[in-house]
Give the backbone structure.
Amino acid sequence: MANLKNCNLLVVGLSAVTGSAIAATAYGYGIAMTEYGPGPGFWPFILGVSLLAVAVLLLLDTLKHSAEYSAQEILLSTAANLSAYQMMGIVLLYAVLIFITGFYLATALFLICAMYRLGADNFKQILGVTLVFLAFIYILFGMLLHIALPLPIFME
Amino acid sequence: MEVVLDAFTQICTLQNLFFLVIGTAVGIFIGAMPGLSVNMGLALLFPVTFSVGGISGIVMLLGLYCGAIYGGSITAILLRTPGTPASAATTMDGYPMAIHNKQPGRALAVSTTASTFGGVFSTVCLILFAPLLASVALQFSKPEYFALAIFGISMITSVSPGSILKGVMGCVVGLWIATIGLDAMSGMERFTFGTLYLSGGVSFMPILIGMFALTQVFINVEDNYGKEQGRNEIRIDSVLPSFADLKLTLPTLVRSSMIGTFIGCVPGTGGDISSWICYNQAKTWAKDKSQFGKGDPRGIAASESGNNSIVGGAFIPVLTLGIPGDGATAIILGALMVHGIQPGPLLFVNNALDVYMIFIALMFANLVMGAMGFSLIKVFARVTNVPIKFLLPIIVVMAIIGTYSYNNSVPDVFVMLAAGFVGYFMHKFDMGVPGVIIGIILGSLAEQNFTGSLLMSDGSLSIFVTNPICCVFLVLAFVSLLSPMYKPALKALFK
């Protein structure tokens, strides 16, 4: 079971790695003052070092309040969490599908699947909401604003 | 006085009022749709001004400009999906009040009141102090802009809902994200990993939509797991704010409108910066801060009056100096010039009638916006009655369309998704997303003016302390940043 202390340590680790990487990369861009102003890496270098410094502060804070943070549970693997992860998967699949089957077909499939997944069981209602919403999108974005939404790859 | 009356009668024609209402309605709609920007709306209606002719076209654009800034708050409050970046701060208290406290009507009433107040206040300032404020705004050079950005960044101590250290971390990451792409000074590519997409920088809108809208969808899916979903029946008895809310928010409204008007005067800033600064100030000045982030009306009032009051402020440099502060005012400036109105120092002398017509039109635009807002609150609030099994998938689709249509960019959609996923885990780990958003908003402003200042001073940091305006902003920023450390000690001392 995850607790706030472990999560904080994870955040510290990630931030330390990211901060070091930013600082090292920025150093490579050049941080010296030239006649044209500070080098392009100057500002990101400050940010990388700052991130590293805040990570150290968070580590000290976590160690100082170790018992308190250990008692705070973070729920990451309950059934409710899994339903959120499933939705993430559906949304990701939908985004990929948009650029394969085109916007309208992918959206129709997504709306039907997502509504069903969230507990809608009246298919007439699901279909009605889907069609009305798609018509709204088509009229607003397609006809009025002339925004070209992604087409299926075989029509591009 | 005769000129003012003449301008008033010329604006008060049926045709002008008709186009004002149309412009405002379109503006509210565009503002409420994530991904549709004020600039896009103005650009779309700009050609219409040719066929409308005369001042009516300008009046329509002014209505759209005011309406769009207000419209962003509607979805920010009801769906935690800011329609515009300027309304991101409104989600902090608007969404909890509308959804958790089940008071969407109250939240929308406070937001509409604040937006109207801010807009009218800044228009009055525009009328009374335009030349004076323009001269102060012109004093801003690179060190002052940098100090303003740092002052803005210092607000993370107020807006971080969990650990302040993690809020600061998020802000630093946001500042770093803003550095991705071409360096403005040297033209060197930074952190692009050789990709063409990143060389143009990471667009702000996908991250904003992902971290607010999509994250909230996942949180709602989790929170409602296994719960019986009935139809919400939230009744709204009054669309006007209560006297108690008015009394509570009045000082915040005045203070935020003053701040917003001043920020609006400074070219290159905008409603997004203004609303966060005003939110921070409202929280700093409040005696009881316990309700901030849980649906405090002062939070909504600060953010909304702060972003709407930039309208009048933004017109000060446009009309007095001919300098547009952002894309929206640049389009309106173009429209004014196309219609034969040449903004600049001589405008007040040569075209006094036109100036007063713009002032009166702007005032009417804010009042019409308020009237439409109040009359539509019951309609807007019905969104909260839609069962989440239908609402959440629709929000996902709107988030994807909004992101895609912003730049017609496929990678933007995946950036938005990534931001949504990361935002969900940040929420889990007690890290607030506003820090990241503030970092991205202020990143380029801070960096460009920091490096520019050092260039001006041959690398000497003394430039930041020798300039009075800069010095004041920096001192305020450090006082605000260090407040979590000294406030408990001060409280203990005075108890």
User: Anything to note?
Assistant: Strands of chain B lie at 181-182, 189-190.
